[in-house]
Each structure stands twice: as C-alpha cells, then as structure tokens.
Specification:
By secondary structure, this protein is mostly beta strands. It has one domain: Methylamine Dehydrogenase, Chain H. It is built from no helices and 28 strands. The strands form 7 sheets. A 6-stranded antiparallel sheet has the order 4-3-2-1-28-27, with no helix packed on it. A 4-stranded antiparallel sheet has the order 5-6-7-8, with no helix packed on it. The protein has a 4-stranded antiparallel sheet with strand order 9-10-11-12, with no helix packed on it. Strand 1 and strand 2 form a beta hairpin. The radius of gyration is 18 Å and the shape is globular. The two termini are about 10 Å apart.
Length: about 325
C-alpha cells in the first residue's frame, strides 16, 4: 500500500466544537473517541452515530493537553500539572495525581498498556504504573533554560513499539532516548533547525520539537515541528519532518511540506509503508512522506489546525482534532 494521494484524502464527518481540542484517544475496536482541550473538560463521543453528541466525563482546572487509553482506563493530563484516571466502562474518575510542577504538554501509553509517560515544562519525564498510578521512574536530561536564558519547554514523548525505549523532545531541538526498564539515557540527538531565536525584534524563541514517533521496527525516530522561522510573530516557515537512525545518531532523511505550518503529530504506517505528519497554520494539513523521511509524497488540506490524530483500526483513515473541530478523514477509496 503506497501513501494516499492528496485527492484520496476526504473529510467524511465533522463535529463542530466551541473549544480548541488539543488531545484525542480512541478505544480500539470501537467508534468511541475521547477528547479534551481549552474548555478544561474531558469528553467522550461515539462517531459511529449519525448525530454524535459529546458526553462530559469530568474536568481539569486548566487545559487538557494529553490523553491515552491504557487497559481499562483513560488517562488525561493538563496544564494544571495533574494526571486523572477515568474508568472506560462507567466514565467515572478513578484517581487524580499531582504529577508535575508545571504544565503537562503530552502523555503517552506504552504499547502493552502498562505504563503512562508524561512530559511537562518542569523538564521532567515521569513514568507511571497505568493500573495503580504509582510512580515508576523519573527521567531528567533536558535543560530548564534555553541557550538564551529563557525557560524551556518539554513538548513531546513517544514509546517504541516494543515498549523498550522512550523518546522525549524539547523546545531547543534536543531529543533524549531512554531505556524504559532502568530509566537510563541511551542516546541524545540535536536538531537545531527546529528552534528559532530572534535577538532583535522580540528577543523571543519559537518552534521546538512538537512530535515524535518510532518506526515499527524501532530503528528510526521521526521528529516533527517547523523549520527556521523568518518572522517569529507567525509560523513563517514550512512544516518539517526529520528521521534519524537514533542508535547511530545519524539523520537519514528530511522532508518539508508546502506553505506555512507546524507538524504537531506523527505516525508511521504499522508496516512502515509511509510516515504521516499532521498540523497546520491558518488551516490544517496532512503530510505523507517516505518512511525514511527522504521525500514528501503528498499533502492534503484539513478543515482546521490539527493538534492530535488517531488512526482507524483498518488504516483506512483517521480522526483528527484541533481548532473548534473534530474531523474524520478517509483515504482508502
């Protein structure tokens, strides 16, 4: 199966939302989608219905920025620094933990559903037991300040498919790779193209690593964000993806999309047939690339800036969430 052409990517369902939706998760084998965003709330909606209606599960005290399904639970993370567990059957809250001292930017579940990783602007990654909520390990390896002496941010994390490794990425373009078993650092990558500093106009930086994904065999790591920016008041650069042989510390491919934009989410085809980035600028985009990142293959428009995305079980399409919309897309026809 080759990457779909832009013409094949069709939006088949849209759900308008009053908030910006930052995070989504789906229970496999169902049409049930969980989402959260700028209204501080966690919702569930059955997209298989003709007229889907969202149901509120509960809330954080700030933006909901991460969601993951692990076993029989949904875990949510937010700018309030808390992780909340929700029972998938009843929708009721199981527990709430004060997980980080600053904003949680992303969470991820290990492939076996036993661990939850959370990253936040305290520049720490923590691994949690998905069933009990117990802290398993704490991973520290990202600098708290940028090279220009401003607070940094820890945006992204991703598990390898075998669950043995975890990658974390920060604002200045640094990626740390960790052994999940013992919490030791096993590699470090530098990707400075993702970070822009303007010493004149605003004394401000922008960019950073916004998305990470391991290839199905675990040998490659894809990194997403935006290239060097000319005007820091806008996303004035192209969406960018780099792919590394992370064990060798060698970049093997780089691909750029058309127009302006940022890659917020990355996913490999489970058989390694393509790599897809999602994000946007004033509107949204899907960017399909060769799985080694050496070539951009197709770019399709989305009806909103995309913050997160989950693939369909049969790989026929995906559900994307973002600015005031949830959109189901299909590319199999």
């Amino acid at each position: 199966m080759s990457a779909p052409s832009a013409e094949k990517v069709k939006v088949v369902k849209q759900l308008a939302r009053p908030e910006i939706v930052f995070a989504a998760a789906r229970r496999k084998g169902t049409s049930l989608l969980y989402f959260g965003g700028s209204d501080f709330r966690v919702h569930a909606v059955d997209l298989g219905r003709d007229r889907p209606e969202a149901r509120e599960l509960g809330a954080h005290s700030s933006y909901v920025t991460g969601l993951a399904v692990a076993g029989g639970s949904l875990v949510s993370g937010g700018y309030d620094g808390r992780l909340n567990w929700w029972d998938l059957s009843s929708g009721s809250q199981i527990r709430s933990l004060e997980a980080h001292a600053k904003w949680i930017r992303r969470i991820a579940a290990s492939p076996d559903g036993r661990l939850i990783a959370s990253v936040a602007d305290d520049m720490v990654c923590r691994l949690w037991d998905a069933e009990t909520g117990a802290l398993r390990s704490e991973l520290r390896g990202h600098e708290e300040m940028t090279p220009h002496h401003f607070p940094s941010m820890l945006y992204a994390c991703a598990f390898s498919e075998d669950g043995q490794h975890l990658a974390t990425g920060d604002k200045v373009g640094r990626v740390n790779l960790w052994s999940v078993e013992d919490g030791c650092s096993v590699a470090r990558l530098e990707t400075p193209t993702f970070y822009t500093w303007d010493p004149v106009q605003r004394r401000h930086s922008i960019g950073g690593i916004r998305a990470l994904a391991f290839s199905p065999d675990g040998s490659r790591l894809a990194i997403g964000g935006i290239g060097q920016i000319g005007n820091i008041d806008h996303l004035d650069s192209k969406p960018r993806i780099e792919v590394f042989d992370w064990r060798a510390g060698r970049r093997i491919g780089e691909a750029q999309g058309e127009g302006r934009g940022m890659v917020e989410h990355l996913v490999f085809h489970p058989r390694g047939e393509w790599l897809m980035g999602a994000g946007g600028y004033s509107d949204g985009l899907l960017l399909f690339c060769e799985s080694d990142g050496t070539k951009a293959l197709a770019q399709a428009k989305m009806p909103m800036y995309v913050h997160d995305m989950v693939l369909n079980d049969d790989l026929s399409g995906a559900v994307a969430v973002g600015h005031h919309k949830i959109a189901a897309v299909n590319w199999s026809a």
